[in-house]
Protein: Aminopeptidase N
Amino acid sequence: SAVINRADYIAPAYWIDTVDLSFDLDPAKTRVLNKMTLRRNADVPAEPLKLDGEELNLARVLVNGQGTSFRMEGEQLVLENLPEGAEAFELEIFTTCAPVKNTKLMGLYVSNDSFFTQCEAEGFRRITYFLDRPDVMASYSVTLRADKAKYPVLLSNGNLVEQGELEGGRHFAKWVDPHKKPAYLFALVAGQLVSREQRITSRAGKEHTLQVYVRPGDLDKTEHAMNSLMHSVAWDEARFGLSLDLERFMIVATSDFNMGAMENKGLNIFNTKYVLANQATATDTDYSNIESVVGHEYFHNWTGNRITCRDWFQLSLKEGLTVFRDQEFSQDLCFEPSARAVKRIEDVRVLRTAQFPEDAGPMAHPVRPDSYIEISNFYTVTIYEKGAEVVRMMQTLVGRDGFAKGMKLYFERHDGQAVTCDDFAQAIADANPASDLARLLPQFKRWYSQAGTPRVHGTGVYDAAARSYTLTLSQSCASTAGQAVKEPFVIPVGLGLLDADGADLPLQLAGEAAPVAAPRTFVLTEAGQTLTFTHIDAEPVPSILRGFSAPVVLEFDYSDAQLLHLLANDIDPFNRWEAGQRLAVRSAIESIAASACPAGAEPLNDAYVQAMRSVLRDPALDAAFKELVLTLPGETYIAEQLDVVDPQRIHAVREAMRAQLATALADDWAVVYEAHQDNGAYTPDPLSSGRRALAGMALTHLCIAATVSGDSVWPGKTYQRFKAAGNMTDRFNALAALVSSGHALAAEALPRFHAMFKDEALVIDKWFSLQTGAPDRGGNILPAVKQLMKHADFSLRNPNRARSVVSTFCQGNPAGFHRADAAGYVFWSERVIELDAINPQVAARLARALDRWSKLAEPYRSAAREAIARVAAKSDLSKDTHEVVSRALA
Ligand code: HT7
Ligand code: ZN
Structure:
């Protein structure tokens, strides 16, 4: 497959100014008439017009109303005899396509008898021939024609300017988008849909209509999405002065969607998972995800749509920035500072468990990649989450107000343009000329160009005679494919020094006239740097990288006592949590290294267990934070800390740790559970969600302890709670406690749950994934997965369902998947190949389950490699899956 290189970017040979599309919608054969006005781009050498197309049937091509010659080059339509000169000309292309056969869910497809589109990144070419690249921005008008009874609602981008009846029971709607846009932001929807509507007046005094469209029957699950949208509109105005630029803003939900949602101009299309919620069917996590995703797509209206990417290598320009914005939005919606900290810890946990492994694996790429085979493979945690961290570091370096100024300048300079990551960084720096960012910009931009996770190594020396503490920080970054040597990064390091009482010391560097109140941020720019703090009366405990101030691995040889001190006292909640994680990882690694983990093993030391007890009992800490501290590092995270990975051993040790915490803290868990029962009305706010999360965690531990002791009281109570719960969070947590502890009552609760929610697809997804992600006991999960795939509700064609069964097992259940008999890998290879023929994007994501195969211990390593090779050897593999498996084998 062809490799596309960033260095090869050239501007298009033609611009497309206007696009007038007419659709005669029919599932089997949709007719598309595409009338465009084009002109040559005088800035580049003359070239034939090469239009992208995919799986289209071409019927007619006219230039200025006349037939013309054309040829095909692969799937591209090439036109050579076009009018010379700068004059605009009209090109008319008539094609047909078959939406009902479109299982890739890219371009125009049918889901539940309705039509939807997905054009990012390169789906528009599956609708019509076009210059399908983000730097070609055009004005669109769209006419949709369809059977009125089957498709009463006809939507596209912008404003509805005309609608009416047609012969034969058909009707039409004409939409005009007032904003120019790249083709990837085009959308249409047609079907039997109903909407929740809200009129709002913006701060700027303009009136807007917000709509959330769903299938009839789902309207009672749209209130939270609408509220989230209203909050998003208000937040972007308040924080960045960015107002909604459309009279009408629509969200439409579909249950067949490759990703989470799509920011099409004025017509966002969402996976139902990120729209539908009521207390009976959605958990607190669902509510919180909906808020983030609705915010994310809305914020794209400026960061992505008004200013878009010059080419797909710049994807993080919009995605990293928009993730940063949605993270800030969710934090700003938290009224308590502790809830903000919880959100930050959750975001960092995602980064470290998903992005750090990506940065160390075969798919490692810079935030601004240099090459790709299939761009869909680069909608990654590196582009999104690491990209957001890069933006966050810019904000740290210029300050919150400085960052807002930078955003203002970015829009002043580039509104309506397709630009690069360099343009963004330059605007933030130029708006803050006296900042560290401006001073260090070329070096800072290595975050865009160098892949891999930097490691910061710290050592501290206390000099009692000099009353000084010297902290030496050095940085390194392992080589990644094509980047053997890395230059030093700009790394903001949030820092504090704790005294023996746990209080922050004033920080005064040698040479500074006076102390500066902590916390402070130091900027590491060299391979090694030394900070000497004066006026220190006793050896402090350093709290380094506070708030996770940079996406790096921090190595510091803390003693257990120092970590316990940080866990008990640090004013920085992130580092407080982090100290607990470090202690747990340390115990896990020691136990994994020991020869075996017999039943009843107790890998955690007394001090750790005691510290966890103190956290649980601490009245000053809120429930959500306690739940995070008490959650042991995941198996994938532990695996990343090891050179050679035995997934079974990691699982055994982590399960032993869970059982130890369950048993040793049994009395506390019972108190915690009883103390966190809320009988008032359900609200998904962070405080009450945290209380429910901690109560759920208590229940799981009580069930685990009961399974160990043979006692039946708590499992019985859990089953009662499962049956009587007033909301999905409590019900699901109770069910999960039974499943995760392996209690026999799970076998009664699971069918009951299915029967209760058999018509709720998103709940049935939870039902599947709870079983396929359950702790493996003697290899029981793979047979269960195979059985579940025979269930009447299972389908590989629906991405949510496929992910809930196959991906949850292969990517979320390491011990179930990595089997000594290699059956997990055989299953994986069969599913990847099967899915690849249906939906390459879903297949390619699943293919990444074995990214870290080379770290595995034998016999897993060889068997995994063999399975990847088997997939790679398959002829007719999609570009998507081919790229993933060939990089894994390289
Ligand atoms: N910008 C959106 C990307 C997206 C996508 C990409 C490839 C294939 C299908 C897709 N659906 C949505 C999502 C976002 O970041 O907002
Ligand atoms: Zn996005």
User: Anything to note?
Assistant: Residues 402 and 630 are 37 Å apart (CA to CA).
